[in-house]
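Lecture 7, part 2: worked example. A protein chain together with uracil.
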Amino acid sequence: MTFEELEAMCKACTKCPLHQTRTNCVFGTGDPHADVLFVGEAPGEKEDLSGIPFVGAAGKLLDKYLEAVGIDRGRVYIANILKCRPPQNRDPKPEEQEMCIGYLREQVKLIRPKIIVCLGRISAMRLIDPGYKITKEHGTIVKKGGFSMTAVYHPAALLRDPRKKEDMLTDMKKIKSYIDEELGIDVALE
Ligand code: URA
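Predicted complex, written out as structure tokens:
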């Protein structure tokens, strides 16, 4: 399957009830050959309306961190665990994650990133470890299934609790150094 075929399949998906309330399926954005994949939780209102992940308030904050550490958003790939918005931005239900995760799995197979950066607890619990403790483990880089993996606070959590912002900057700097030095990947802004 090509990336385009997968995207078309995902956009036509009716596997779970979230398709009934979506404006757009938010498949993902960026370089489909990226070495760095960021994975958030689920689209919010702005994402649902535009079809693009991380374009609302949390997305704008994510952009600031990417810029601050010198990562070009166009040279990475950004996706979510869920491709459709849960009503009122509630947490994704386990059964919704179960039905949607196959799309992310196929994206990972096609993109073949070297590092996956989970944005927030829900993504880290799904992709790294069901018992992941974001407050303790954020910024720690582990190897899993042939990938380097890590998690940082979700940008929306930083908007709720600005005291976490310092840790976020430290983590993002560490991840950028790891990308540069350990993985030897160039994701810098031109
Ligand atoms: N929060 C997410 O987890 N993903 C988005 O795309 C937007 C907000």
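The longest strand covers residues 147-152. Residues 40-44, 47, 53-54, 56, 58-59, 80, 119, 156 surround uracil (CB under 6 Å). Keep this in mind for problem set question 3.
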